[in-house]
């Protein structure tokens, strides 16, 4: 006899969860983009060296790397809802601490707390979608990917204008207020579902208490390393740009802070069409290496333009580098396409994010160091260009379809036992 279940509508009984997912997505990039457009204003109150700026630029990928390992364990111990509540609370507290900081150490601590919360939210969003919307995975995932891009673009655009009108502390505090929108839904959902037995039933299907494939087991996979290299290269450029693009444009192209913030916002907004396009390309292009190589060479053109013709069609160079960041959403799609099981996908995601973000943390600091040694922006941009070429290794390795479980000799049937 065939078992059937009633069709579930998108809204019935799940409006609060949908709001929680979308508001977390809107907030998981705000702290990355809220500081760099107004760093010159902040330095009037808090002295920050170039290397200190490099450390601030390193914090997002460092926090995300740590979250890649810690978030699944947190969710297994406390439940998905509570894990996302903790993430939202950290966003509020961290951004608030940044706004009231009176020295560099407090500013850095507040930044790390906010970014750690965002990293946890980033990792727990996919299982939250799987828990509450198993019948609407593509729809809800597409919605939150768009909001992640908006969350990166909005602070970049508004940070400088708000700072001009109300001061930099208000400009930073705005994003703590926005994070409250993510806190409230998960507070209600957590208070509703505090029965441990119910939580285990709901959450174990998406975050098993005893995983069969460990995060580090996938290190034996050639495919896992290929995706990690591409993800890491894209993250190096992305976080270096969010840390330094306003300074590059202010010093090399004579932009005002408001104009530079607008360019950073443009860079972030490019992620919206890329997030929509990536799943289509990944599913329809047989040799995904061609797409990766195309992204690399488009980015190379952008880096060259910013280095040697920063005042000529500046927006075009920013757009080209932004297009090259298609590697980021493409890798997120490949994590699912190149694994056969949910557990394989979870393990691969943890491995890729932990390793790639750890490497990406060196990007903003390396840019700061090269800037300090060279006294200009040409050599830092050439460093990013050279780093981007490493993704061509991934293009070759991912040219043919392959699956992580096959490469680590994992018996898929074991998950059914």
Task: Break the fold down into its secondary structure elements and pairings.
Blueprint: H1 15-27, H2 30-33, H3 39-42, H4 50-78, H5 80-100, H6 104-132, H7 137-166, H8 168-192, H9 196-204, H10 222-252, H11 257-269, H12 271-284, H13 288-308, H14 314-324, H15 327-337, H16 342-360, H17 362-374, H18 378-388, H19 391-397, H20 404-407
Helix pairs in contact: 1-6, 1-7, 1-8, 4-5, 4-6, 4-10, 4-16, 4-17, 5-6, 5-8, 7-8, 7-11, 7-12, 10-11, 10-14, 10-15, 10-16, 10-17, 10-19, 11-14, 12-15, 13-14, 13-18, 13-19, 17-18
How would you characterize this protein structure?
By secondary structure, the protein is mainly alpha-helical. The protein has two domains: 13-210, Growth Hormone, Chain: A; 212-417, Growth Hormone, Chain: A. It contains 20 helices and no strands. α1 (15-27) packs antiparallel against α6 (104-132), α1 crosses α7 (137-166) and α12 packs parallel to α15 (327-337). The radius of gyration is 21 Å and the shape is globular.
């Amino acid at each position: 006899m065939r078992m059937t279940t009633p069709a579930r509508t998108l809204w019935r009984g799940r409006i609060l969860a949908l709001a929680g997912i979308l508001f977390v997505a809107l907030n998981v990039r705000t702290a990355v983009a809220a500081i760099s457009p107004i760093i010159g204003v902040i330095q009037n109150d808090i002295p920050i060296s170039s290397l200190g700026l490099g450390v601030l630029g390193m914090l997002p990928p460092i926090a995300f790397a740590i979250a890649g390992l810690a978030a699944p364990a947190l969710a297994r111990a406390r439940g998905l809802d509570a894990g996302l509540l903790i993430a939202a609370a950290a966003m509020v507290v961290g951004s608030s601490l940044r706004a009231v900081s009176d020295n560099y150490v407090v500013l850095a601590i507040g930044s790390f707390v906010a970014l750690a919360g965002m990293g946890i939210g980033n990792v727990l969003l996919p299982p939250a979608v799987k828990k509450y919307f198993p019948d609407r995975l593509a729809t809800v995932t597409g919605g939150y990917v768009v909001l992640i891009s908006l969350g990166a673009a909005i602070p970049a655009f508004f940070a400088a204008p708000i700072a001009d009108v109300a001061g930099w502390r208000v400009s930073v505090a705005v994003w703590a207020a926005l994070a409250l929108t993510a806190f409230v839904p998960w507070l209600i959902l957590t208070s509703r579902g505090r029965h441990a037995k119910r939580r285990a039933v709901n959450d174990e299907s998406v975050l098993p208490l005893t995983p069969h494939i460990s995060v580090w087991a996938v290190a034996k996979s050639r495919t896992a390393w290929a995706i990690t290299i591409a993800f890491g290269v894209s993250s190096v450029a992305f976080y270096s740009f969010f840390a330094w693009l306003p300074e590059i444009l202010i010093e090399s192209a004579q932009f005002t802070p408001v104009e530079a913030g607008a360019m950073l916002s443009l860079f972030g907004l490019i992620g919206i069409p890329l997030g929509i396009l990536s799943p289509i390309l990944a599913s329809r292009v047989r040799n995904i290496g061609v797409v990766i190589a195309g992204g690399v060479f488009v980015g190379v053109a952008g880096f060259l333009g910013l280095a040697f013709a920063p005042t000529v069609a500046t927006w075009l160079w920013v757009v080209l580098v932004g297009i090259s960041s298609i590697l980021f959403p493409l890798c997120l799609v490949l994590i699912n396409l190149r694994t056969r099981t949910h557990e394989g996908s979870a393990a691969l995601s943890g491995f890729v994010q932990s390793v790639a973000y750890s490497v990406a943390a060196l990007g903003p600091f390396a840019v700061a160091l090269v800037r300090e040694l060279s006294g200009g922006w040409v050599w830092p941009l050439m460093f990013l260009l050279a780093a981007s070429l490493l993704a061509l290794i991934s293009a070759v390795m991912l040219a043919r379809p392959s699956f992580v479980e096959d490469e680590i000799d994992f018996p898929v049937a074991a998950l059914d036992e």
